[in-house]
Structure formats: C-alpha cells, structure tokens
Design a protein that fits this description.
- α4 runs parallel beside α5.
- A 7-stranded parallel β-sheet has the order 3-4-2-1-5-6-7, with helices on both faces.
- The chain has 7 helices and 7 strands.
- The chain has 203 residues and is α/β, with parallel strands linked by helices.
- It is 29% helix and 20% strand.
- The mean pLDDT is 94.
C-alpha cells in the first residue's frame, strides 16, 4: 500500500524564535520532522511539503502578522527538512513536473492547503493509500490538511511528537476532531515502522 508523508509549513518564520510568527517550542520538533523526511526518502515515500508563500499585501495579514512573504528568509523551509530531489509547485495553475521528486513543495497563500490550485491534482497523481501528517500549526494548518485528506476516504495518521500548536487546548480539540473523523494518532517511532507492524495499516 502506498504511503505519502505530508509535511506542513515547516518554515523558518514558524519554527524558530527569530521568526515573524514563531510557534513557541516548534524548534524542538525539527529533528523529528527531519527524521521523518529522511525516512521517506530512504524508503521511496513521496513527501508533500506545504509552504506559505505570501504576497506583501495578502489578506491573511489582516488576521496574522506578516510572515512567510515569498522570497524572504523566513519563508524558507528549515534546511534539515529539505530533500535532495525536490520540486516547488507555485500557487497558480502550472504543469506538474513531479515524476522523480522525493519532495513536492506546494506553495499556498491561506491556512487551508486545499485552497491551493495544485494540491488536489498532486494527490490524484500520487494515488496514496494512506497519509502521514506532521508540522505546524496543529490547530490551524495541520487541522485543515487533516480535514481535507480525511475527505479522500484514505487513512490519515498524525504524528503527535512532530507537531506543535499555539494553544494547548485548541491543539487538543483539533486532535480530538481528527480522531473523531477517523484519523489515527501515532509517534515518530510508530510512523516509520511498516504500517502493518505499527498497528494502523488496516484502518
């Protein structure tokens, strides 16, 4: 069965204290995310990495401080989360040259990755049997991604020690929502086991 890893918004503006929209404690999960992405590369598991790529005047900045403006340092993914064979898919209609990519970086401009014009096309192309999600922010972009992926009818797994949220109570509610909708919560150690051995492969 084909697994796809989904790495949500692991960008400098979110992950580190100097970032424009720092998620407190997020730097602690970077090694876990790097481990997951390396595991994926070593086992020919495609990685979809969503990234904010905002314009200077994006409407989102009415709600949130300016962050991840395209071309700025803060918009970059953490180096340790990048794989060698990667392609960047911009937030506009374009050809999908993803055939040999280990990592597909999908740019977006809202909290919901499914608002990006290319994500659904990429999912159709990859034809996964299950999805494994991690990154930031638990109760916002991770939750939106999980909701969208659960609608595909495929098993969705969230790696709880490779996510970080802004508010503990909101993060807890987000995970409860994901579980109630049929998602599964696992650790990094469980996520990198063969699905049948990890106990979530038959969901």
């Amino acid at each position: 069965m084909k697994t796809v890893f989904v790495d949500i918004d692991t960008q400098l503006d979110f992950l580190y204290p100097a970032g424009a929209l720092y998620v407190p404690g997020a730097e602690r999960i970077v090694p876990a995310i790097a481990r997951l992405n390396r595991h994926a590369a070593q086992h020919s598991i495609p990685v979809i990495s969503t990234t904010d790529a905002h314009l200077e005047d994006d409407v989102e900045f009415i709600t949130w401080p300016r962050h991840c403006v395209a071309g700025t340092i803060g918009q970059h993914k953490a180096d340790s989360t990048l794989l060698e064979k990667r392609v960047v898919i911009p937030n506009r209609d374009c050809d999908l040259a993803i055939a040999n990519a280990q990592q597909i970086v999908v740019e977006k401009q809202t909290v919901d990755a499914f608002a990006a014009p290319n994500l659904s096309r990429i999912l159709d192309h990859l034809a996964a049997d299950r999805y494994v999600i991690y990154g930031v922010v638990t109760e916002i972009c991770v939750l939106h991604a999980a909701r969208g992926l659960l609608k595909t009818g495929k098993p969705v797994v969230v790696v709880t020690d490779a996510i970080e949220g802004l508010k503990a109570e909101d993060s807890k509610r987000a995970l409860e929502e994901i579980r109630a909708a049929g998602g599964t919560l696992v650790t990094v150690g469980q996520a990198i086991l063969p699905a049948s051995s990890a106990g979530w492969g038959t969901l």
